[in-house]
């Protein structure tokens, strides 16, 4: 019954005793007077920025990276015992959920006023820090031009040729936007149409891939995915092109990534300073240059071929009204999209 | 910890132990009351494994039973259930075909390079389902949906069937097959009528693990855009931040798991490793393949090509063409060391918790043993995010100093992967002749000493195989690691997640490749394992 397995595994078990030594770097994090940021934004995108933030506010910063929705669920589960002082979310919905449960502290007026009221929480306990626009990606080998309205997408002409990501938070925020702009009945009809013509994908990148490969002709995505892919592969190697919709169409909604300070934080001073830093010129330039998003403060413009904010014809909508995600989800379920 | 479950059973019929051994060496024996030295730690392991259930109860009933029932009774639930079970059925069937055919070829025939093939047949374990799905999708986007999900899941999980079946093939006494051959049966008939029935418990156990794996998988189905129960639970967390629907749906998965485990226990039935001789196993005479060795080699080669060579090839391609491939050797090394450390600790704790449950389930038939085994399995089909949130819930309330510290992460791995180690321990103990324990007991050894000096040493190789298996799956784990790791700690899986999150596939490739290579070490040991 001798096995070559037993001995190496005994060695592994012995090695296991040294785990705390091997990973000791983690054990001192998250306590004391460091500012703990739960970041739903990807480490690759924001780590350099958060290092600048640490210098700017002069407080040690520990960042916990994760998925926005899962981190929001985690904070909801932690309640007032959360280790997070600041939540840096990829979308407004996750911040809205924390706000609704009363977990976020009100931000100072001076901080809030840096951002147009359209791009922050209606109760003043979170603010957007960068903007992203919904667009239609299209494959020029398959069509000459993309439609100018999402309503033109759900026609028989495009049957089987439209990619979208129904479980994606940005898609759902866009549907919520349509409900606010055009009412529930019109939105339900549109969703039924989309179900007829569209092909659901797991996320925006997969939608973009499908457009790129010609698997679908049109894709409903956020603008920066294309610019990210262009950085990965080289813009000249991409087949897909973007169409920014005109005329305040619901498909041109501009949504935000944002931040909020936890009510239970014992670091509310540094946490508020951190929000101010995210709205500083330096940080806003970072979003424009590195993440290809829209800066939200005056005097900083987008870069890298992203059209200027004032050339966009986004629908006029109060992002605070996008908190009716539950109803959107119920509608998506009723129509059978999620 | 109560032992009433055991106490209420009628006393065992008096039967000489030797007779039982002669009739069915490894079979579970009714009767003897489980010793406290097993029962107490087994109950502790079960309580541990049931933590997610407690959490799900609290969350699902948060807004009243009527609300939870409305979610569960929705017709969509039934559709999702049907889809999940359909996918599991197809994957299990494919895994049985791949696993049993490869096990037979590598263990029982004159297949050239059998040893190398047996290592290659376990290597797919090292490939995370999301990496498998991603590589197939990048090569053939039209695979998305049921076909792609079934393909990716089959290719990463057939070793769950291969390993126990190969071990069983080595453990079966060849005398019966020889007798059948001497009676004029052809090899195919001998395999079908004598060998296959004896493989049933091993195959069913492997099939159960594959089923639970498919039910809990999020990575492959999510990339392949095939909506299953687990994907719906994720969607629910993601889209509504409302934990009630996710919890209610998770309860359905738990009920399903318990039903599946019960069905598998029934499949075991009276089947066992029937031995006519003493406790030692004589190796079987290998079947000469003759000219059939060419198709046999082609089959092994094809499986290895699609399950191992293909994903590695795609990763190599991404490394070669992407602009985002920035090699940072020191981060890669540190992450690999951390991953190795937590996986070793996770595997060690899981094995420790699984030992008493596995021994009980192998040696003591009875309600208490069955309940404990079912408890150990209860959480296995749950998505990682659900288990992780349940541990967040308990830790912030009852173990706050441990929260977001390594011990809790290691504990989460044990909850998630306990069944793998329990199944391996149980199978290993079953193959050890109980007569030796009886002799030790008759010589006045205490239950603890019998366990320490007889049972565990005899079962050690099989238990070690379970540890290696757990080691591999812990290395690949993502959702619980993301939520429970100490702030600032990274594993290869979380780095992989970070890199692919921005679409930097080339930058992700070194982490994926390192993960596969590192996980290949225990897979290699498993493949060489001869019990």
UniProtKB/TrEMBL annotation, chain A:
Fe cation binds at residues 224-225. It comes from the Bacteria. Pfam families: SBP_bac_6. One of its GO terms (biological process) is iron ion transport. One of its GO terms (molecular function) is metal ion binding. Residues 1-23 form the signal peptide. CDD domains: PBP2_Fbp. Keywords: Ion transport, Iron, Iron transport, Metal-binding, Signal, Transport. InterPro entries: Ferric-bd. GO terms for cellular component: outer membrane-bounded periplasmic space. Belongs to the bacterial solute-binding protein 1 family. This is Extracellular solute-binding protein. The lineage of its organism: Bacteria, Bacillati, Actinomycetota, Actinomycetes, Kitasatosporales.
TrEMBL record, chain B:
Gene3D superfamilies: MetI-like (1.10.3720.10). It is found in: Cell inner membrane; Cell membrane. InterPro entries: MetI-like, MetI-like_sf. This is ABC transporter permease subunit. PANTHER family: FE(3+)-TRANSPORT SYSTEM PERMEASE PROTEIN FBPB 2, INNER MEMBRANE ABC TRANSPORTER PERMEASE PROTEIN YDCV. Belongs to the binding-protein-dependent transport system permease family. It comes from Streptomyces finlayi. Residues 1-27 are annotated as: Disordered. Its main location: membrane. The keyword Metal-binding does not apply. GO terms for cellular component: plasma membrane. The keyword tRNA-binding does not apply.
């Amino acid at each position: 019954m001798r096995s070559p397995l037993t001995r190496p595994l005994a060695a592994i078990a012995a090695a296991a005793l040294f785990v705390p030594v091997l990973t000791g770097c983690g054990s001192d994090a998250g306590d004391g007077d460091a500012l703990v940021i739960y970041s739903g934004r990807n480490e690759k995108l924001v780590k350099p920025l958060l290092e600048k933030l640490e210098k700017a506010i002069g407080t040690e910063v520990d960042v916990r990276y994760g998925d926005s929705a899962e981190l929001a669920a985690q904070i909801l589960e932690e309640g007032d015992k959360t280790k997070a002082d600041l939540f840096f979310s990829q979308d407004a919905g996750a911040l809205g959920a924390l706000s609704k449960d009363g977990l976020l502290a009100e931000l100072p007026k001076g901080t809030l006023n840096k951002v147009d009221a359209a791009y922050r929480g209606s109760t003043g306990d979170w603010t957007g820090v960068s903007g992203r626009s919904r667009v239609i990606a299209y494959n020029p080998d398959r069509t000459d031009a993309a439609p100018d309205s999402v309503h033109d997408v759900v026609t028989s002409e495009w049957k089987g040729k439209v990619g979208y990501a129904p479980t994606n938070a940005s898609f759902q925020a866009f549907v919520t936007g349509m409900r606010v702009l055009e009412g529930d009945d019109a939105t339900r009809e549109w969703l039924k149409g989309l179900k007829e013509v569209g092909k659901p994908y797991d996320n925006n990148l997969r939608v973009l891939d499908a457009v790129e490969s010609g698997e679908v002709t049109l894709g409903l995505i956020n603008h920066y995915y294309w610019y990210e892919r262009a950085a990965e592969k080289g813009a000249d190697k991409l087949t897909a092109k973007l169409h920014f919709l005109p005329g305040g169409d619901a498909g041109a909604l501009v949504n935000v990534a944002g931040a909020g300070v936890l009510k239970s934080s014992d670091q509310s001073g540094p946490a508020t300073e951190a929000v101010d830093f995210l709205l500083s010129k330096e940080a806003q330039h970072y979003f424009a240059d590195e993440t290809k998003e829209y800066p939200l403060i005056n005097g900083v413009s987008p870069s890298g071929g992203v059209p200027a904010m004032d050339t966009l014809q986004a629908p006029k909508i109060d992002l605070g009204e996008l908190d009716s995600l539950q109803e959107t989800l119920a509608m998506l379920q009723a129509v059978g999209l999620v | 910890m109560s032992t009433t479950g055991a106490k209420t059973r009628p006393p065992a019929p008096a039967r000489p132990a030797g007779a039982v051994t002669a009739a069915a060496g490894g079979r579970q024996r009714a009767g003897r009351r489980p010793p406290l030295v097993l029962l107490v730690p087994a109950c502790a392991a079960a309580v541990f494994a049931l933590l997610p259930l407690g959490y799900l109860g609290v969350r699902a009933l948060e807004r009243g039973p009527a609300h939870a029932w409305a979610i569960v009774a929705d017709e969509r639930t039934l559709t999702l259930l049907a889809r999940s079970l359909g996918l599991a059925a197809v994957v299990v069937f494919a895994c049985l075909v791949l696993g049993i055919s490869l096990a037979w070829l590598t263990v029982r025939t004159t297949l050239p390079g059998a040893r190398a093939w047996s290592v290659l047949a376990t290597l797919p374990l090292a490939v995370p389902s999301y990496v498998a799905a991603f590589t197939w999708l990048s090569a053939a986007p039209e695979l998305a949906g049921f076909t792609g999900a079934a393909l990716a899941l089959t290719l990463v999980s057939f070793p769950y069937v291969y390993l126990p079946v190969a071990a069983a093939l080595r453990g079966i006494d060849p005398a019966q097959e020889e007798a059948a051959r001497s009676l004029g049966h052809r090899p195919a008939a001998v395999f079908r009528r004598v060998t296959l029935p004896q493989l049933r418990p091993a195959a069913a156990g492997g099939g159960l693990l594959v089923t639970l794996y498919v039910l809990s998988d999020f990575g492959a189905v999510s990339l392949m855009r095939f909506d299953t129960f687990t994907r719906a639970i994720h969607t629910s967390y993601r889209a509504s931040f409302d934990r009630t629907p996710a919890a209610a749906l998770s309860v359905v998965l738990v009920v399903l798991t318990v039903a599946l485990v019960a069905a598998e226990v029934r499949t075991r039935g009276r089947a066992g490793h029937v031995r006519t001789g003493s406790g030692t196993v004589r190796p079987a005479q290998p079947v000469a393949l003759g000219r059939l060795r060419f198709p046999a080699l082609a089959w092994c080669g094809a499986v290895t090509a699609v399950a191992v060579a293909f994903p590695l090839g795609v990763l190599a391609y991404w490394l070669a063409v992407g602009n985002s491939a920035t090699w940072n050797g020191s981060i890669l090394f540190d992450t690999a060391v951390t991953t190795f450390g937590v996986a070793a600790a996770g595997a060690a704790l899981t094995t420790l918790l699984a030992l008493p449950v596995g021994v009980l389930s192998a040696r003591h038939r009875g309600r208490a043993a069955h309940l404990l085994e079912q408890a150990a399995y209860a959480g296995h089909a749950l998505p990682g995010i659900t288990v992780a949130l349940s541990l967040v819930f308990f830790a912030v309330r009852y173990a706050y100093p441990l929260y977001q510290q390594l011990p809790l992460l290691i504990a989460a791995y044990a909850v998630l992967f306990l069944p793998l180690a329990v199944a391996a321990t149980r199978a290993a103990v079953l193959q050890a002749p109980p007569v030796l324990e009886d002799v030790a007991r008759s010589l006045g050894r205490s239950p603890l000493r019998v366990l320490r000096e007889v049972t565990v040493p005899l079962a050690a190789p099989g238990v070690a195989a379970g540890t290696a298996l757990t080691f591999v799956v812990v290395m690949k784990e993502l959702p619980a690691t993301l939520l429970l790791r100490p702030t600032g700690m990274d594993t290869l899986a979380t780095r992989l997640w970070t890199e692919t999150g921005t679409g930097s596939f080339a930058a992700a490739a070194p982490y994926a490749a390192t993960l596969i290579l590192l996980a290949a070490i225990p897979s290699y040991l498993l493949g060489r394992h001869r019990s």
